[in-house]
Amino acid sequence: PNLDVILDIPVSISMEVGSTEISIRNLLQLNQGSVVELDRLAGEPLDVLVNGTLIAHGEVVVVNEKFGIRLTDVISPTERIKKLR
């Protein structure tokens, strides 16, 4: 397929630190200062998602006083395109 037609389409990229499930009761009890324990250990790579699809893993870095991510494991471009369909 000719990829040139899609190369300039914007996509949303996000990093996921971890996740958990809580009951609605516990959700309603959350307030400022609450701590929610996640399923990922400190120091584990973060998930890198494009439009909600996992495409890589990486570690947090600081770039010009802003957070960034250094990719440590990336799926191939062909697989990335397949996952975005």
Automatic annotation (TrEMBL):
Subcellular location, record wording: Cell membrane; Bacterial flagellum basal body
Keywords in alphabetical order: Bacterial flagellum, Cell membrane, Cell projection, Chemotaxis, Cilium, Flagellar rotation, Flagellum, Membrane
Topology relative to the membrane: Peripheral membrane protein
Domain of life according to the entry: Bacteria
GO MF terms held by the record: cytoskeletal motor activity
Protein's GO biological process: bacterial-type flagellum-dependent cell motility; chemotaxis
Described purpose of this protein according to its UniProt entry: FliN is one of three proteins (FliG, FliN, FliM) that form the rotor-mounted switch complex (C ring), located at the base of the basal body. This complex interacts with the CheY and CheZ chemotaxis proteins, in addition to contacting components of the motor that determine the direction of flagellar rotation.
Protein name stated in the entry: Flagellar motor switch protein FliN
Organism field: Stutzerimonas stutzeri (Pseudomonas stutzeri)
Gene symbol of the encoding locus: fliN
